[in-house]
Amino acid sequence: MTTTESKVGADRISFLPVPSDTQVPEAVRKLWAKAEANIGFVPNVFRAQAVNGEQFLAWWNYFNLLLNKEGFLSNVERELVAVVVSAANRCLYCEVSHGAALRGYSGDPMRADAVAVNWRQADLTERERTMAEYAEKLTLRPAEVTEADLTPLRAVGLDDHQIMELVQVIGMFNLTNRVSSALGFVPNAEYYSQGR
């Protein structure tokens, strides 16, 4: 580490300076306040990405639509995919935060932790395993993905809407993992104990 570099630690959540409440748009402040009221803390990803407030809000709107609204996949399935993609990308922030969400939705912390470490050793249904295989392939070897990769998904019951949502969740986490990893986002301490 050079003298100009510093390790992200307990007092830093990003490689970039994090804006204060007075440096972000009002809509960002409102989102931070809503998070604080709903979950008891502001996710560090909300603070760190707010360097560019309007871009953060655009990201959040799509992320929120894919992960927090009623969708074509279940909450467990979407969080499972999030954790598989984040583990493949070795994204600390998203593995920890979405591992917590998977524990919460599934009610099974041991299974969720197994997914984060090696989904192949987790107790998954055939449908979940097929989605995990597809998510990992699209994440690590996108140039190898063909139409034939949809056949196993259809065989375990995914319809066109579910396949589209699956692909969108995989894409969202590949984007978010890269932003989080590139800028050294640190997960909130609260995530580590959630769902245990």
Automatic annotation (TrEMBL):
InterPro entries in UniProt: AhpD-like, AhpD_core, CMD-like, Uncharacterised_peroxidase-rel
Stretches that traverse the bilayer: none
Domain Carboxymuconolactone decarboxylase-like: residue ranges: 55-136
SUPFAM superfamilies: AhpD-like (SSF69118)
Pfam families: CMD
NCBIfam families per the UniProt record, alphabetical: ahpD_dom (TIGR00778), peroxid_rel (TIGR01926)
PANTHER family: CARBOXYMUCONOLACTONE DECARBOXYLASE-LIKE DOMAIN-CONTAINING PROTEIN, SI:CH211-175M2.5
Protein's name according to its UniProt entry: Alkyl hydroperoxide reductase AhpD
